[in-house]
Structures are given as C-alpha cells and as structure tokens.
Design goal:
47% helix; 9% strand; globular
C-alpha cells in the first residue's frame, strides 16, 4: 500500500513527496482462506504478511532478523520499481524500450542494489525483453567523454 509523505523544502516554499510503502494483506485472500477454514495458529493471515513493514531495523544478530531485513529490502525495492513502471507506462509509450532514457534511479546504499536484480527480472520475465537488451536498459554504457 503506497502512501506519500510531504517533505517541506528549505524556506517552506517547496514541497517534495516521499513515497513510502506498507504491507497489507488483501481482503480477498483473507476471505477466501477463512471460508476454507484456514487460519494460522498465530492469528489472522494479515499478521504475518504485514510484519514486513511493522518492524523497523530487526536485529541482524540472529538468522530470523537477517531474513526479515532481506525481505524488507526486497519488498521496498519491488514496490518502488513496480510504482516507477506504473507511472512510466501511464505517462509514456507503453514500452520498456525507452525506459533508460526517461527514468533515472539513484542507488545510494547497499540494499537498493537489489534494484538492478528486480529491474532485470521485470524486463526479462514480464516485459519479455532479451537479456542483453535488458542489461543495456538497466546499466547503459557510460557516456563518451568529450575531448577538447
């Protein structure tokens, strides 16, 4: 579930929006499972799926904490990439061929490096792009330097 947080810029004259995501269990899945008598011992189905966005900085001293961190990192990257594609395809031609020329994604930490993997997965598996073309879209060759 996406939600936007306004961030007021210096001097209060500009507002930028930070898009955040929260995990929510779908009512359809919950209803279907409950109708079939499936109820996890720990409670309603949404409890487990919503944990991904309820626990901030789980301990990485134990395997369960490391696993939850990786799941959180992938969840946020996958949500952001899906949102970027949705916005791109709504505003531009519905093809991923010009994606690299129109979209820039800043990777400024370790976990966003999952973005490269998720972009490749979407382009190859969902958009049916050849591996080489998808790689050029995700990691375009550096611009040729201008020589005097």
């Amino acid at each position: 579930m996406p939600y936007d947080l306004p961030i007021v810029g210096y001097g209060g004259r500009t507002v930028n929006w930070l898009r955040l995501f929260a995990a929510r269990s779908s009512d359809e899945v919950r209803h279907r499972d409950l109708q079939r008598g499936r109820l996890p011992a720990g409670g309603l189905p949404e409890d487990e799926s919503e944990t991904v966005s309820k626990v901030l900085y789980p301990s990485d001293a134990v395997a369960a904490g490391r696993e939850l961190r990786l799941l959180q990192e992938y969840f946020l990257v996958a949500c952001a990439i899906r949102d970027i594609f949705r916005r791109y395809e709504r505003r531009r031609e519905p093809t991923s061929r010009t994606f690299a020329a129109r979209v820039a994604i800043q990777l400024n930490d370790t976990h966003p490096s999952l973005t490269v993997l998720e972009l490749m997965r979407i382009l190859v598996d969902e958009k049916r792009m050849a591996w080489e073309e998808a790689w050029e879209t995700v990691a375009p060759p550096a611009a040729t330097p201008i020589t005097p």
